[in-house]
Each structure stands twice: as structure tokens, then as C-alpha cells.
Sequence to fold (881 residues):
Amino acid sequence: MKRFLPTVLLALIACGGGLGPGPPDGTGIKGTLIFNGEWPPETDDVAVAVYRRRPQTLAEFFNIAGWDTTVTIGAVRYEYFVPLEEPGAYEWIVVAWRPRGGFWNFESLLGCYHVGNDTLPTPVTVRTGETTKNVDIQTYFDLVQGADRPDRHICTGFLPPLPSLSGLNAAGGNLRRDVGTNNRQGDR
Amino acid sequence: MSGRTIDKATGEPLPGASVVLLGTGIGTESDVEGEFSLTGLPPGVYTVSVSLLGFAPHVSKDVEVAANDTLRLSVGLSSTPIHMPAIVVSASKRARNVVDAPTSVSLIGSEEIQSDNSVTLNESLEYVPGVNMVGGQVNIRGSSGYSRGTGSRVLMLIDGFPALSADNGDVKWDAIPIDQIARVEVIKGAGSALYGTGALGGIINVITRNPSTDPETHVRFLGGRYSEPVHQEWRWSSSGRYFQGTDISHSRQSGNTGFILGAGQKWTNGFRENAWHRRYKLFAKLRHRFKAAATITATSNWALDDHGAFVLWKDRNEPLEVPDSAKNDKTVSQKLNLNVDFYHLLNPQTGYRLKSFVYRTEFDNEIGSRTSSEAYKIGQELQLDLQPTGKVALTVGAQWIRDVVNSSDHLFGNHTGLNLAAYAQAEIEATDRMTLSGGSRYDRYRTDDRAAENRLSPKLGFSYRPSRRTTLRATLGWGFRGPVIAEIYTNATFSAIPIVPNTGLVAERSISTEIALDHRPTSWSHVNAAAFWSRYQDLVEARPDATGRVSFRNVAMGRTAGIETSLAAALGPVRLEGNYTFISAIENLPGGDLPLPYRPRHIAAAGARATSGRLTLEGRFRFRSRILRASGLLPEGNRDLIPVYLIDLSTAYAIGKVQVVLKAHNALAYNYAVVERNLGSPRRISLGINARY
Fold:
């Protein structure tokens, strides 16, 4: 009990003690990642990335507005926060997976933010000094193993076709491999 | 048998004294003149207990009642500075002296509940030694964690009748008639030897008052206001947050028949978003005493609760708000129970009791999607009380309980369960100072076409009184809890967490033991100490699998061990109380041991009450140490589950038959969370008015 005594005394003299507000999150996006499926043993990292626009080129894929790379490996759920410098609309919020010894790759996405019947990623608006909340994302590990589920087409179906592997190495080249038959192009 | 109860010091009559023939189901209360009578008793020898709050209980042994004669007793009670409970019925399923009870018992009197200004009973239970509430789920000596109320490991009874719902197996606190409570008995440790499934960690038996001998009307008003959040950032509403409730009941007796009729309503707009409720209830109790020492009691209780659903807070920086998607979440629920108890004392050595009950619960949820469930718990129990000699008491009985659940397909579906049981217990006064007890219960239960489970739950007890002021007690008991229908069949999503059925669930089991000392060193002090240990197998916990889906599974092996101490003393007009419980609760996992979820290691409470004439002042402090481990279903884990320090201050003033209580709950406005993303109640100021005419 001795080690509790100082806290007891503090509680007795303080009013409104205990839990308090945390520092304001500031401009950004937060929500919960819900992981579906088993974590691949070769997992090295998982990150949330936020984009102003849906990328059309490889250069745009690496033009990330903000990210959270502190995702807990093996978690069933993770509450993320992506701080952003600028207010405005953000069109593509994705969860990317990186294998051990590998690199971040647009083909190894676990999911993206989309709601309701949207067939494209749902844009999110952020106001100055405010955090846009409840941007929850369902993620699926089988997407990186080539599973043909709707999320694949929603999250990457808008990407232009990738003509050859060599195109990947050219910044500014086209992005997309043929990932399915039900791909969409263009904006919503 | 008739008689009069008086204050030994003044000779004044004592109304409201409880007169009980120990070992039987026969009892009454003294009227305004202190008079009592028990008619139609079979001739023979009885043990009579007379007790009243504020007075030392009086027990008269070898009281002989002759045929066609009325024995006249005059019982003088001596006032005592500290509360001395006398009778307990839950420990042995029959009335007996609390010092002879084969297990540890704590009691809450109606006066304590009244002066607590409690809205529901769980608020008063927080101060009972060894008891801790986790998100509305009661936990005795670390037996329970938290599973949103599903599958209580403490068996809740009202007048000895089951009060856990047939679908969720949870306690409906709003359905407990708090204004009709005579006392609450809290039995600690496994109690399946007499009560079967559910009594894994203990039993709480709410004893409702009997119809009063003299006509009486009772009005209880409770109202107040929640303080605004201390932190400006947390303020979410521009309007005040209030609560109020009124209960009114009338009781009277005509000849051998008495009744209580009561009604009540409660309302709040809630201290946090979507925490509003509107509640209505009705209560009726009818008691008829036949001439041949037989009594029939029928009790019915109905409650309607229409409330918003606050499941998880929106954000740590907006803890009093729900996520935007949950703003319209609500639940409407109804509970109805009908209990009929028939007791017949054939002769001083033999009595039997037949209980029949129906407990219906229904809810309609609009939490995310719409789900509903209607559940019935129906059953009967026949109990035979035998006292072949003055030194031996036998209790034997049989019980059946049927659960019927009709629920939406995407919640539980439609299911039935059947529990058949038989039990026997013997209590032997080996010497004047030593009592031995032993018994067992056999249960067979089955849900739908799942394999039937059979459980044998023995119990052994030993009680020794080395002196008039000291009792030593030791018990060893087995307990179990069959999985409830919600644990087996839930197929739904709550707060984005998908829950899937597990039809392979089996009963969780426990074995528990305790050694206890009860000592009254002086007439103004009382000390109680117990060391306890329990071993659990196949504990049912909600756990996620690798795909993120959650199901109830038999995952845990564990044990709890600890000590529980309490002290009470009266120093002139000041009464002091304190209790402390240490609990080591361990879950055994293949990779090593971890704390069992939601069990604090330290629970303590202390209080002081000073009375001067009509005025009473009281201060109470409650402490619960940090929860070391939470469910793991939410990413922040136990981050926000900090230690709890709460102070309640109250003053009461009695004006004739009216008592006014003004109370500040959580007077220092301490901010805490007992379960994830749920901020505890802020400071609230309440005014309670209790009037009896």
C-alpha cells in the first residue's frame, strides 16, 4: 500500500484528477485498422499512407501527404493517426504491407478507405487544426497473395495499366499490372 | 407462539423486529406495539431468533410449543453500537445464524441502500468486501472479468429465485426492485453445491421485504444533477445533465393475507451522449399464511427500460460522446418475473418448500443493425428440510430449469436448454462449538442437441467457535457454469468487432477454498479476515482468432488467491468501517502466466459515519488498483484503465418518518475508466427523500 499512498494523497487534494485530455491531435486523419486474415510470417512493416490524389504514375505513388508507420505487427486492430500539414480533400488512404527484405509496393496493399457502395476509394476532407475521425479501414492479407476480392478493384482498379515490368523502374511511368478483370478507370 | 419485543434498557416496544424459527421457513415481524404471533405451529421444540438493526440478535433455544396452546415470549434486545447481522438464508437454503454459516457472507441492509441514494443495486455492492464491479458486471474475489455482462460468474437470485436472463446469462440491474429490498446476502466462493450453474464465484441473493404487519405507504424520491466535465475540452452539451426517479408502494395485512403493491419510474438525460434512459416498473407481492404453518408467497416484478446505447467513446479527447455512426443507437428491454414459493412446516423436524418461477426478458436493439431476443427461464424446485435430531439438519432437493430463446437469426437464433439437478446437504453440530457441513449437487444440462454435460459439485465446511466472540471457518467447494446461449450462438457484429458462434463450448469449472476468522474483540468492534484460493478450468473468454473474428472460447486455465479483511468499530457517535482485499489472479498460458483480464490486485474501502440526534454525516472512500490486463480486442489495451479513487460525502436528516439524504458521489470529480473507452460517472449530487407512513 505504501507505493499507493502518494497517489491517494494526490487524489484527495486534487479535483478532477485521473484521466485527462491528451494533446490535441491537430490536422490529420485517424481511425481503426481492422486486420482480416493471418499475418504473413514474412511481414516486416505495415503503414498507413494518405494521398491528395489517386496516383496515376509511380512518382505520384511515392508522393505521400502523410503516413503512420507505427502499426503494431500481429494486431487484430490498430488505431492509427496520420498528421497532415494541409487541410483539404484526400482521395486515397491506403494500408501498405512490406515483406522482410522487400520494398513498399503498390501491389502489396492490404486495403483502402471506402464506404457504402463506393466503387472507388472514398475521399476524406480535413479542416485546419481538426482531426477527421472514424476513417476505419478493413484490411485483407490475402490481397497480397493475389486474392480477387472487391477491395482489390476498389483500391487499385482505377490505376492505368502497367505495360511492362521495366515501366516500374521508370519514375513517371505507368503503374498498374493487370490485377483483375473488373477494373475501372477514371474518376467516380 | 406469540410475544413482544422490547428494548432491554428502556422497556419500550420494538417494532419491525424479525422473528424467525431457525432451520425452518417460518418467520414474522413485530408490529408497532412490538407484538408478534406465529399461529398453527406444529407442537415441538424450536430455536427462535429475534433481531433488529442496532440491537444484538437474541437466540432462544429449546422453545417448546405444546398442542392447542399459545406460548408467550417476551424478548428483550440490547442495543449495540455496531451492526450485527443475525440471519442468513442463502448459505444453506434455510434460515440460520450468520455465525454458523458454512461460508463467508456479507450483508447489505435496506438502510444502507437507502442512505446510499443508489439508483441501482450495483452501486451499493461496490462497498462490500471482496466485491468489485467491472462495467456493470459483478466480480467476487476476482472470479469474473468483463464480457459486456454476458455469462455472469456470480449467480444473482431474488428471494432465492434465479435472476440471470436465459439468453445472455446476465444481471438486469434495472429490474431489481431496489426500493423493496430488505437485505442483500453476498455469498463468497463457489456455491454450485446448492445452487448449480452460475455460482462459480459466488451468489448474491436479494431478499425483498415482506408485507408489513401494519398498513404502510413508502415513497422514495431520488433526483439530482451530474457535474459538468472538469476538462473544458470534454464538454459536449450545453444543457444540464439530470436524473430523477420516484417509487411508491403500499403494504398492508388483512387477517392471514398481506400484500405489497408498488410502482416507479426513473429518467435521466445522461452524463454522456446517448446515455439517456426512461424506466418504468411495477412490483407486487402477495403472502398468505395458512393455519397449518404453511405460507404461500407470490411475487411479480416488471420493468421496462428504454435507453440510448453508449458502447464506446468517440475518442480519448471526446470521451463523453459516441462515434457519429452510433448517435441513434438504442435499446428497449422488458423484464418480467413471476415467482411462487410455497412452504409447509409439517412438524418441527420436517418442512418442505416448492418453488415455481418464470423469468422473461426481451430486448430490441438498434445498435448498428437491428437485433432482438425474447428469452424465458422457467423452472421448479422442491426442497425438503429435515432435522432428525437437534444436532443434525438435512437439506435435500431437486430442480429443473428450462431456457427458451427466440432471437433474430443474426444474433442468437432460436434455442432451448434444459437443466436437471438434485442436491443434498447435511449440517451437524458435532459439539456446542463445532459445526460440520457437507453436501453435493448433481446437474445434467443440455442446450439444443449438443452433448449433455454432467456435473457433480461437492462442498465441505467446518465452523468452530473457540469463544462466544470468535468463529473460525474453513470451506472447500466446487463450482461450475454452463455456457449460456449468447456465448454459444452469438453471430453478430458489435462496435465493428465480428462475433461468431462456437458450438463446442463446455462448462467452466472451479474449485475454491477459504479459511476465515470472525472476531468481536469488544462490544464495539468487529474484525473479519479470510484467505481464499480458487482454481479455474476452461474459463470462457471472448477472444479473437487469427482472422480477427471473436468467439467465446474455453481458453483459460487460471487461479485466484488472496486475502480479504474488514474492520468495523464504533467510537461513541462515530462508526468506522474499512475493508481491504488483495487478489492475485493468474491465467496460465503456454508461453507463461499473465494476469487474468479485468482483475484489480487491490480493492479497498473505508468510511466514517457520525450521528448526532437526527443528523448523520458520512464520508466514504473507495480504491481499486489499475487493471493490469484488458480484453485485447481494442488497440489501446489497458492504457486508460487507471487506478480508481472515489470519495462520497453525504448528510442525512430525519424528520419524523421522513429521511432526507443529500449526497455527493465522486465528490472530487475523479476521471476514470473501468473498461476501455467508457468514462466513469462524474461527480453527481443527489437528493433522496424516503417517507414511510
User: Anything to note?
Assistant: The radius of gyration of chain A is 20 Å. Residues 5 and 11 of chain A are 10 Å apart (CA to CA). Chain A touches chain B through 34 residues (CB under 8 Å).
